[in-house]
Amino acid sequence: MLVMTGGTIGSSIKKNTVDTSDAATYSLLQRFNTDYAKADQIHFKTVQLTSLLSENLQPEFWQSLVQCIESKTIENYDGIIITHGTDTLAYTAAALGLYFNALSIPLLLVSSHLPLQHPDANGFDNFICAVDYIVQNHPAGVFVPYQNPNQGMTLHRGVHLLSSLPLSSDFISARFSSYMRYEAGQFIHVDTIPYQQQALHLKPIFSPRILLIRPYPGLDYRQLKLTGIDCVLHDLYHSGTACALDEKNPQSALYLLNQCQKQGLAVYFAPIEKRTSVYITTQKLLGAVAISHR
User: Fold this and answer.
1) What percent of the chain has pLDDT over 70?
2) 194-245 pLDDT per residue, tens
3) Pairing mode, if any, of strands 210-213 and 186-189?
4) Domain spanning 2-189: which superfamily?
5) Domains of the chain: which residue ranges?
6) pTM score, whole prediction
């Protein structure tokens, strides 16, 4: 199954502007049929779900994507490929990786850092990697094949993929530990992060009532609106830390936690790595959270 959603891989350049186009959407398959040695042995069921640049995609899109896939008879397919833009690629990969945690076939999200008409675009190579993964009957799951410029082809787990850094088109997995390398048509397992697939029964509901906070120096928690939400997801610095000054200090995460407690809002701090020793700021956060749940 090939589900097309737009993105740079489904875009063209016209008058110095990159935008999605119907012609670009199917140029990928045209090139595949011409350049892939065994193209005549592979059959695609193509679905044009939408044609949007991924920065314009919202959680409602994930619901539509899930419904699109679940409306098909999965047993009729060897695998699923979704074409997608790069800006929100990691978000969609995580959403699908969590929801389709017990999928029986591979699902791969394929993107391109440049429109396919550009000679340096990596989209076609990423697509070939996805096709070969399915054809070679590798394990089920949600994955992202991606070749960073001037580097080898890498396959990432959807739930481990990180967004690109600003002004970069490179993608990496958490702890720089990708799932596989793809070399000369062969896949080499390189994953060092323990991963246990669990059958979680989830609903395709992506709540808009979750407030995501990313810390930065000078963040004043008094400026945040805590109404109309169900819970707070608070990101942390790379060491699993956030400002943990006195709870009366409005720039302290402890201040936020105190305000959320008064309103009955759950707060989740993540990610924190389990270590033999942690920073005192992390201990303060963990201690405050423990008290709030007693």
Assistant:
1) 98
2) 777 777 889 999 888 999 999 999 999 999 999 999 999 999 999 999 999 9
3) unpaired
4) L-asparaginase, N-terminal domain (3.40.50.1170)
5) 2-189, 210-292
6) 0.93
